[in-house]
Amino acid sequence: MDEQPESPFESIESALQFVELLCDAIDETRAEIEQASAEAQPDRRQQALQLVSYNLAKLAMHMGTSRRILNDLRTLRRLFLQERSTKEDEEQGEAVEDARAASEIADSADGMGFD
User: Fold this and answer.
1) How far is it, in rounded angstroms, from Cα 78 to Cα 90?
2) Which pTM was predicted?
3) Residues 9, 14: Cα–Cα separation, whole Å
4) 67 is a domain residue
5) 115 within domain boundaries
6) 3-state secondary structure of 1
7) Ordered per-residue pLDDT tens for the chain, 115 residues
8) Is the dihedral of CA 24, 30, 33, 39 positive or negative?
9) Tally of domains within the chain
10) Rounded to 5 degrees, what angle do the CA atoms 50, 56, 60 make?
11) Cα–Cα distances in angstroms (integers) from residue 79 to residues 28, 44, 53, 72, 83, in the given order
12) Cα three-residue angle 14-17-18, rounded to 5 degrees
């Protein structure tokens, strides 16, 4: 898991970063379309701009949902990896404690004259 991704979408972070950039672009485009729609005469062009604005709003909603899902996945992966590290640390800690206990037993046996 420590390998560097070869393409921009091999990690959750890079996908999340792309979705955030896409959300920013959608927001900018929506603002431009809404301004153009407000300035347009009531005709087919204004209706088309309103339809574009509506579809951009739907896309923004879907991208917001995607961003939350990616963020949740990133959080869950971090929790999973941290939990996994904690388990490995506990296992190593138990092994060290077992080695210390065995060493103490051996030391006390040597002190009692058991050879």
Assistant:
1) 18
2) 0.61
3) 6
4) yes
5) no
6) coil
7) 455 556 767 888 899 999 999 999 999 999 999 999 888 888 999 899 999 999 999 999 999 999 999 999 999 999 988 866 556 656 666 666 666 656 655 555 555 554 4
8) negative
9) 1
10) 145
11) 34, 52, 39, 10, 6
12) 90
- DSSP string covering 21-82, please? HHHHHHHHHHHHHHHHHHHS-TTHHHHHHHHHHHHHHHHHHHHHHHHHHHHHHHHHHHHHHH
Question: Where do we find the tokens 């709003």?
Answer: 57
Hey, what are 91's tokens? 């296992």
The answer to the question of residue 1 being in a domain is: no
At what angle are helices 44-111 and 12-39 packed, to 10 degrees? 160
Range of the domain at 41: 12-109
**Domain for residue 84, yes or no?**
yes
Rounded Cα distance, 31 and 39, in Å: 12
Residues ≥6 apart with Cβ < 8 Å to 23: 60, 63, 64, 67
